[in-house]
Amino acid sequence: MHSPPLLVQSYALVLVVHRTTLAITAASAQAEQHCGRSAQALLRRPLKELFPAKTIAQITAVPPSDTPSVVYLNDPAGWPAGDYQVVIYPLKDEFVLEVELRRKWSHVGDYASRLDGFTRELEAETTTSGLLQRLCDGLTEHLGYDRAITIQFDNLEHSVVTHESRKEGMPSMLDMRFVEEDIPEATRCRQLAETVLNFTDDNTPLHPVVGDVSDPAAEIIHLHVASRQPFVNSLRFLRDTGLSTLGYLSILIDGKLWGSCYMHSIEPLYLDYQMQSFLRVVGRLVQHKIAYHLYHSNLRNKQKAHAVRDNLHKEIIRAENLTEGLTAGPTTILDLIPEAKGAAVCSDDEMTILGETPTQEEINAVVGWVKGVIGEDKKWYTDQLATHFPPAQAYIKKAAGMVFLPLDHDANQWIVWFKPETVRTIVFGSTAPADNPRDRRYSERAVTTQRWSLPWREEEILAIRALRVFLQKVVLQRYSTTQRQNTLLREALDDLELFSYTIGHDLRAPLRGIASYADILQEDYNHLLDQEGQAFLNKIQQNAERMRIFMDDLLALNRIDRNKMVFNSLCVEQLVRRVLADLSSAKYSAATQCDIAQPLPDICGDCNYMIIVFTNLLSNAFKYSARAKEPRVEVSFTGEYRRGFPVFCVADNGIGIPQDQQARVFDLFTRSTNSEGYEGTGIGLALVQRIIRFHEGDIWLESEEGKGSRFYFYSGVRVGVHTGGR
Ligand code: ADP
After folding, report:
1. Atom of ligand 1 nearest to the CA of 650
2. 665 Cβ closer than 6 Å to some ligand 1 atom
3. pLDDT digits over 444-469, tens only?
4. What is the pLDDT of residue 153?
5. Residue 144 in contact with ligand 1 by CB distance below 6 A
6. Which ligand 1 atom is at minimum distance from the Cα of 671?
7. How many angstroms separate the CA atoms of 124 and 128, rounded?
8. Ligand 1 centre and the CA of 157: distance in Å?
């Protein structure tokens, strides 16, 4: 059985009736004023002593259900004269009955046609603001309230009056703000469970329900019966403001209390069951329309935010380091949150600042403090920083609101965004609770606030969260890319060490010996040799020279040192012209036409190494096209970007490379079978590939035997940065 007394208002008689015996088990204490018999006298009496048989038959026919039913009771015998109706809440074992006078709504007329007209007007509204205004107007017009207001909750559980309609003489409540205690959590929970209610305080005391009330019946009376005990705050509001009636309509979106419509009346205004149903229908319609508007505006905002986010993400991927990606490109973290006017990133112990922010020391201080207060989920934001952290008052113009986003577990890397102060005059609808509880709480007072920023909206917080998830992924990827590169480097270096040892110590000296003895032979003993001998000597010299070139190439390969590379922006056209000038003396390039297709974007790379790349690609192109009818070589920008870097092409119309050998031409000492009659060492492309890899780029080719080859490549580094070798 329910222990705390259940209290109800005087305007309806509440009865609990056993379903099978039809005996009255509980009745509200003011029964006498409704039916002429005291509550005590009604207990355990059969219902037929109170209602005619027809009404009882109608009541007992109602099966247990969640929805109440209504039956009419016209001028029952023994009752004060009048037409009544019984609202039946049918439970499994009992009925909760609420007997009320049927209202004569002279100003309402036919409420069904009013409902039809009103809902049509609401449906025609295309904005949430228009809809809420129409709602307020309609509730004063159709239900006779003196004032209707809508309130919306912000992220601090504060509520602000956003729309209002009022009869002449009623003071305005527009823009007034209520604090959490005015609509406390318990009230908000009840507003979730019962979305429509109307209290009338006629200064008569509340009445207990006497008798035995089972738990299910008590819950119905507590939550759903219209004459139940009003909220304490609502009563206080009525008394403080000289009103007698307060109604509400909850606006629920996604199961949460998004806002409410409150209705006020100076004279007692009692809503019967039908009028409450009217309100419920209106409420549902308004809710659906708002949800629909919200969905669409969220969608639009999301699309905009996505575009910004995508750009930012691309920049982060392209950038050499986190700070550069977040702050240096055309889209920065400030674009992610347009209402934020300043931001700071801390990565690798270095802070980078964007826009209007406090000083670095001030940011360090506030971040130090935030790190101490953040909870497990580590996100932290406020639109009144100075309230939580008083030193922030000194820079409130730049940072009245702040979001802190840690990027790693220990919050050593982080991002903060700041919103500036927005000076707003806020009229609070209530004063802080005074010591004397009889003081008027609900009296206006104006407060000019200077401590607030615009609130952090849900989509902003979501965007920030999404960024964090993305960053975590990127950092992981980077880590694995770096590892992969390190492995490649190590392999390459191991190869090279072996070669450099062999070439430097074992081969170069004897080769030099062969060459110089051949020279001596030629100078001093040439006359002793016959023609054939001289030809052999010549061959020795030529081969020694070839071998020297071969070793020089190998050593060039060995000397590629990532640590010594300096990456600058390079003009590709100049680079190519310089290489062509150097190659012009070579025998095969003179007769070949070489086009430089304009425009060529700049490239980032180490100048000397990029010269080696172009020298090798161009000399190959000249060499392997030299025997074509009209040899042609072209350097161009393909128009394509890989990972954001321009892809270049060196093309020729020479002998091409057989399909099955194309993948291997970048391997050391590997030559295609159709290049036999051409000089070469099989080292150049290996060298080029290695340089390009050290530039974090890639090289590949397209070729058709007999038709020509196209070598594509890009450099994947940025100006001024080098990531170090081993
Ligand atoms: P090489 O000194 O032999 O030219 P590279 O390493 O520069 O050595 O090239 C490797 C092989 O790739 C060459 O031997 C040749 O078979 C093929 N190759 C390179 N560039 C071209 C090209 N432009 N046209 C046809 N084949 C080419």
Report:
1. 23
2. yes
3. 666 766 678 888 888 788 888 888 88
4. 83
5. no
6. 14
7. 11
8. 73
pTM value > 0.70: no
d(C-alpha 509, C-alpha 517), whole Å: 12
Give the whole-angstrom CA distance, residue 668 versus residue 237.
89
Cβ-contact 380, 370 below 8 angstroms: yes
How far is CA 630 from its chain centroid? Answer: 59
| Nearest-angstrom CA–CA distance, 490 and 713 | 23
Contact 698, 536 (CB under 8 A): no
In eight-state DSSP terms, residue 67 is S
Helix (H) or strand (E) holding 33: helix 31-35
Atom of ligand 1 nearest to the CA of 674: 16
Q: Which residue has the tokens 């009217």?
A: 278
Average pLDDT across the chain, whole number? 86
Question: What is the three-class DSSP state of 407?
Answer: coil
Ligand 1 centroid from CA 705, angstroms: 13
Q: Side-chain half-sphere of 388: how many Cα atoms within 13 Å?
A: 18
Instruction: Let me know: does 578 contact 615? Beta carbons within 8 Å.
Output: no
In tens, the pLDDT along 191-214 reads 888 888 888 887 778 899 999 999
Q: How many CB atoms lie within 10 A of CB 171?
A: 9
Q: Identify the sign of the CA torsion 580, 582, 583, 585.
A: positive
Q: Which residue of 550, 553, 624 sits with most ligand 1 atoms within 8 Å of its CB, as the best mutation to test the pocket?
A: 624
SS3 assignment for 180-219: HHHCCHHHHHHHHHCCEEEEECCCCCCEEEEECCCHHHHH
What's the CA angle centered on 198, arms 194 and 204, to 5 degrees? 125
Please report how many Cα atoms fall inside a 13 Å half-sphere around the Cα of residue 181, on the Cβ side: 10
| Pocket flag, ligand 1, residue 384 (CB < 6 Å) | no
For strands 632-642 and 593-596, give the pairing.
parallel
Question: Do residues 314 and 641 lie in contact, with contact meaning Cβ atoms separated by under 8 Å?
Answer: no
Closest by Cα among 619, 547, 550 to 582: 619
- The atom of ligand 1 lying closest to the CA of 553 is 2
Residue 50 banded pLDDT, cuts 50, 70, 90: very high
